[in-house]
Amino acid sequence: MNKGKLPENALKRSVLRQLKTKRQEVVSSAEVGMDCALFSVDSKSGAADLCSCMQEAAVVSEAERFGSKKQYAVTMPQLIQRCANNLAAGGGSIFAVEICLLLPEGTEEPEVRTLMQEAESACKELQIQIAGGQTRITEAVTSPIAVITGLGHVVLQKAKKPAPGMDVVISKWIGLEGTAQLAGRFREDIITRYPQYLVDEAALFERYRSVLPEAATAVKSGVCMMHDLSEGGVFASLWELAQRAGVGLTIDLKKIPLRQETVEVCEFCGVNPYELLSGGSLLMLAEDGPGLVLTLEEAGIPASIIGKVTDSNDKIILNEDEVRYMDRPKRDALFGCLESFES
Fold first, then answer.
1. What is the mean pLDDT of residues 160-187?
2. pTM surpassing 0.90?
3. Residue environment code for 4-31, b if the CB has 16+ CB neighbours within 10 A, otherwise e
């Protein structure tokens, strides 16, 4: 199989269908479109109290993140933020993480210290605690691998079920995380065609990676369901959201917000921005989309209505007069770009 997420069909067939043991404390387990699990401390009440999620990746220090154009690796702060985003989109508020580090033979202690200092710095900013974990040297890996488990309180209770006519709202712009990765890795190449200020701005899109502010605002505004964008871009996230909600979607391509820097960087790299790593944006289903957009914008968060929930299973993309059906999620465009560089 190729790099990236396990394809959805393989995930359902070989992973999710193997999970048969149930416990009453588990209110909701992770599934397609739902990146966190919900638990009830008081199993008799049936109400979810706690939530958890997990993220893993090859990791590098902040100083080394763009050291290679070929290898895709993230930093500890990025990985921790992804956990926080997953929990926020699932209606939770993160309070702690546990970190497992698998390190290759020959790793020096200062490297370990740097990774953990960066993790602690990110946790301090998010006001969460590193509660434990494991650190192991093993011949099974050739580069550092981090597995992070996020723990949170459930803050969104008894949300309304998705229903036809609801608005599909998205925060900020798509492709932010992937644009920053591409601009950082291929900076010297891209500035041969585009102004340096444009490329430098694109590389700074990581500053938008948190969806915690919009998730908190959406919860207060009575949002129905949320899903944070990540691997596979906006198209993959829309598919996952529809699968989880059990509804159809009609999406207007022209209304999906896109920064000009993303357009230029993706054009240079031959990447589809709608299938590009998009951490930093949040999809929301709401009865009153215009009201939610206004509330988000009053909080300083750009937001747009990009479509509607429908009463079918069809996931439709409208592009002016063109109508097409959404495909199953594809591998993130970033991986294909890095592989083409290798060849």
1. 96
2. yes
3. bbeebeeeeeeeeeeeeeeeeeebeebe
